[in-house]
Amino acid sequence: MAAKIVRITKAKAEQNKAQKEFNRLVQKIETLGKTISDYRAALTDIQQRAATELEPLRQQYFAQRAQLLNRFDRAFDSSFYKKNEKKKLAYLIQDIAFELISAAGMEELKPIFDKYNQEGGYDAVKENVEGMNKSFSTFEEGFEEEFDLGNQEKTPHSFQEDTTEYREFAGHRQSKENRTQRPKTQKQLDREAKRELEARNSTKAVRTIYLDLVKAFHPDRETDEAEKDRKTEIMQRVTEAYEKNDVLTLLRLQLELERIDQSHIESLAEAHLNYYNKILREQTKELEEQYEQLQFQALALGGQSAYLVSNPFGLEYAFNQQVNEFKKTVKNLKKDLKDLQYDEVVKTFLKSYIIPDQNDEFGFVY
């Protein structure tokens, strides 16, 4: 049976503020529900394709990077290269080794990293980076959102700390704590009491629908087995909706099971609708957060832009683009490995290569 459409159908000009808000929220929840369903299906497909299409390319890439690492390691031990060239080789070796150990789990490369790192080796560097990253987890969520710290890479080559912004945030937090320690005014107490009353009334409104459905469809006293099974299935749906505080689904069930009709929806008192609207706003927020979580899962696949993963079509496009880029990278890396077997080619490459300045911040000594 198709889900009943819950809507106030009278002309918009005749609707009061609460009725308009009710329709708007119901429409938004229905749209979000469909969007989430479509996105989840697309994400599941992409995750399956990632295992069969992307992962083999990643493994090829890691294997080729390991070959490149070994090539640079051999070059460093050769007397063919000058001191400045070996400094660059040392940086490249550490950079590639850290990537392969961290991202590909190639623990066997730790001795190579440690050979070139003069700050305690891989474990010490990793511990230092994790310690710095961990410090950010103590910051309030508002600071992370404002300064977009969540996008910092968890590697020693990309972690940067902004002390000025931190001081500003710390001052803001202290000010906030000072405010919370002040005695509340009567106006603040009245607002809190009003919010608590609204929350209780909203809960009561949902419970009223729930009890109506329980009274009509609880299967315990049913003697007919077929009817008992039907009511058991209904009660499962009712209980699930009630536990989620899903007033929209409960209203749909009331309509579907003919506990109420459209005239009941049309004649709901404004105060009653306001209670429903409060719950619907909370439900809308939960769905928006659920959608964001799915997008974070898509971003976790790597190589995707936040803009592209904002909808199912962009998600598929971004994944196809990522696969093509990986294929291109693997192909180019294969050619580079062939060319770099010659010392003269390595020397030419090192001549134009510049060590990024930002890496000096993390204690790598070349």
From TrEMBL:
Region of interest (Disordered), ranges: 169-198
Chain intervals with Basic and acidic residues compositional bias: 169-180, 187-198
UniProt keyword annotations, A-Z = Stress response
Q: Which SUPFAM superfamilies match?
A: Chaperone J-domain
Q: What is this protein called?
A: Heat shock protein DnaJ domain protein
Which species is this record about? Answer: Runella slithyformis (strain ATCC 29530 / DSM 19594 / LMG 11500 / NCIMB 11436 / LSU 4)
Taxonomy of origin reads: Bacteria, Pseudomonadati, Bacteroidota, Cytophagia, Cytophagales
